[in-house]
UniProtKB/TrEMBL annotation:
Known function: Probably acts as a heme chaperone, transferring heme to an unknown acceptor. Binds one molecule of heme per monomer, possibly covalently. Binds 1 [4Fe-4S] cluster. The cluster is coordinated with 3 cysteines and an exchangeable S-adenosyl-L-methionine.
Keyword S-adenosyl-L-methionine: yes
Coiled-coil annotated residue ranges, if any: none
Keywords for this protein: 4Fe-4S, Chaperone, Cytoplasm, Heme, Iron, Iron-sulfur, Metal-binding, Oxidoreductase, S-adenosyl-L-methionine
CDD domains linked: Radical_SAM (cd01335)
Gene3D superfamilies: tm_1862 like domain
BP GO terms, sorted: porphyrin-containing compound biosynthetic process
Residues of the signal peptide: none
Protein name: Heme chaperone HemW
């Protein structure tokens, strides 16, 4: 089963914390979809004979493009491969782009799942993040989406400048009152070259310290689980059966095909695993969409092992200790490392496999890094 990702690289303005590849404005939307048709046709050999189980429209802001473009692309793809009868088609959406009519059009075009970039229900937080919507829009749109779509996800961010745990608890409470099928909880990270990074460096804003972020995240873990959401990846929680199929497939290292500027693909054939990346430039993409791939690498055994360790910890599917020992240069110190993390209460061992504890989720990268690199 294959999954597909389409990167739609348009936003109205750049949010303060965002470092994704995108351009601002609507100027090239029709050019982009013309180029996308050419890229899609050029991928015929990758698509032919395949069954697609999930499609993810990401970006950028897919909800700002006319639905007719999305529907036309889905038809083009459907003509080149098969769609699973249970296909999940997700669209990332910003609340200010959605009203009842647009959501009905999206539903009619085949979108089954909306992932709504709510981020917060607090005006100060939305302003600090540079978001264009209000809390009221988020409430109304999420409630309406829950009546129309099979699955609805809400994104929330904690650790925003000026935030404290009281504000975070209120955000989470508001989100849970809507009862979305899926909640993603992201801890704000100050990425280089973002507007937020510039403000922090200048000293005009400060982000809450790690202890506040950790308290927010731990509150989310316990509250969401209390309300019946399963914690199936570091940042992701869902009601039964509502995990993101596209994301889960990529975390399980299943093949996916990416379209559009900056999209990545992963293919597996005859024991070989290949990663490719499309050019991160709309101008270059428009000039030669059939030659969008600018990076290609075959993963070495060591890289495959490293990915497997990181990803099986992230989705907490159980990291087999024998597997970890076998491929590991640090095999001689591994027992001590495992014992150290167990004492800290970050991991637990069950039937020969390691699992993160709730506390351990906060340190997943550190744990994986120490297992692999010391
Ligand atoms: S809407 Fe999303 S992709 Fe666009 S700038 Fe904001 S965070 Fe980035």
């Amino acid at each position: 089963m294959l999954t597909l990702y389409l990167h739609i690289p348009f936003c109205k303005a750049r949010c303060s914390y965002c470092d994704f590849y995108l351009v601002t404005g609507r100027g090239h939307i029709s050019d982009f979809f013309r180029a996308l048709s050419l890229e899609t046709a050029s991928r015929l050999t990758d698509l032919k004979g395949e069954t697609v189980g999930a499609i993810h429209f990401g970006g950028g802001t897919p909800s700002m493009v006319p639905v007719s473009y999305l529907a036309a692309w889905l038809e083009e793809v459907a003509a080149l491969c098969s769609f699973s009868p249970e296909i999940e088609i997700t669209l990332e959406a910003n609340p200010e782009d959605l009203d009842k009519k647009k959501m009905e059009e999206l539903r009619a075009a085949g979108i089954t799942r909306l992932s709504i970039g709510v981020q917060s229900f607090t005006a100060e937080k939305l302003q600090a993040l540079g978001r264009a919507h209000t809390a009221l829009q988020s409430r109304q749109v999420t409630a309406a989406a829950l009546r129309l779509f099979e699955s609805v996800s809400v994104d929330l961010i904690c650790g925003v400048p000026g935030e404290n745990t009281v504000m975070w608890k209120s955000d989470l409470h508001e989100a849970l009152a809507l009862r979305p099928h899926h909640v993603s909880v992201y801890m704000l990270s100050v990425e280089p070259k973002t507007i937020l990074h510039h403000r922090v460096a200048k000293g005009s804003v400060t982000v809450p310290d790690d202890a506040v972020q950790a308290a927010c995240y731990e509150h989310a873990q316990s509250e969401l689980q209390l309300q019946g959401y399963s914690h199936y990846e570091v940042s992701n929680f869902c009601l039964p059966g509502h995990h993101s199929r596209y994301n889960l497939a990529s975390w399980k290292r299943e093949p996916y095909l990416g379209f559009g500027p900056s999209a990545h693909s992963f293919s597996v054939s005859q024991e070989r695993e290949i990663r490719t990346a499309n050019v991160s430039s709309l101008t270059r993409y428009l000039a030669a969409p059939a030659d969008a791939v600018v990076f290609r690498e075959e993963l070495s055994a060591e890289e495959r092992f490293t990915e497997q360790v990181f990803l099986s910890l992230r989705i907490n599917s159980g990291l087999d200790v024998d597997f970890l020992r076998k491929g590991n240069k640090l095999e001689h110190t591994l027992s001590q490392t495992i014992a150290r993390f167990s004492e800290k209460g970050w991991i637990e061992q069950q039937e020969g496999s390691l699992y993160l504890t709730q506390k351990g989720f906060l340190f997943v990268d550190l744990i994986a890094g120490e297992f692999l690199f010391g």
